[in-house]
């Protein structure tokens, strides 16, 4: 897999103009202008840059898991360094908007270098983009215009500090808008929770738990065609419980069914549920139910 370690080499590959700063590139369309068009397709690649880009979607629908979304209002996309990128020519974007590429070294020594890692949207897939309303779009474009002015000015001792400050503001607004998006997508959240529950039910009923052990959240997210972080954030916003907590609830419910069989020891129940250490299973059961597995059996007079 090709790895672009410098911003210039990455932009050369994309067939985009070379940057005016070795670690920062700002491209935008103004008026009736258009962004330069990058290459139509690419095999898997990685680079050492953060990318923030906004483009209009003009043809067809973009799949998000099993759901299709209209991107007419525009999509703000965030990509972190060393994420695997790959695309083909099946999705057509109108080349209006902006694209900011920041080499990770540009942020070194600033507070933003650590803060940017805390923004979950940098770990989302491209199809989990932030969909801006027209009002939000104007707010973001105003910030980008400030960044672009400073980018094209002659560099001085204040330039980097001003650009970093504007980037920090842009990301804070993006975080706010993502919060709005999560709250407005209750139907999607419910669909994701239903898919999550259905996947676990199928996993248990098909005997996968005994064969392969407790599934990881990453495995479940991959089956659902969403990223682990997005799944976790969405379920947490909607239900107040993390993906791990939902998984544990399924395991405890399954444990209750097995505990109704008095011929199995507590250790055998734990192993059947995929727990390598029975004491951990007992602690988790007591934490969730308030009583131990043995007490649960005694409560129903099954010993």
From TrEMBL:
Taxonomic lineage of the native organism: Bacteria, Pseudomonadati, Bacteroidota, Flavobacteriia, Flavobacteriales
HTH araC/xylS-type domain boundaries: 198-299
Protein name: Helix-turn-helix domain-containing protein
Alphabetical list of Pfam families matching this protein: HTH_18
Keywords for the protein's UniProt record, in alphabetical order: DNA-binding, Transcription, Transcription regulation
SUPFAM superfamilies: Homeodomain-like
Source species of the chain: Lutibacter holmesii
The keyword DNA-binding appears for this protein: yes
Recorded superkingdom: Bacteria
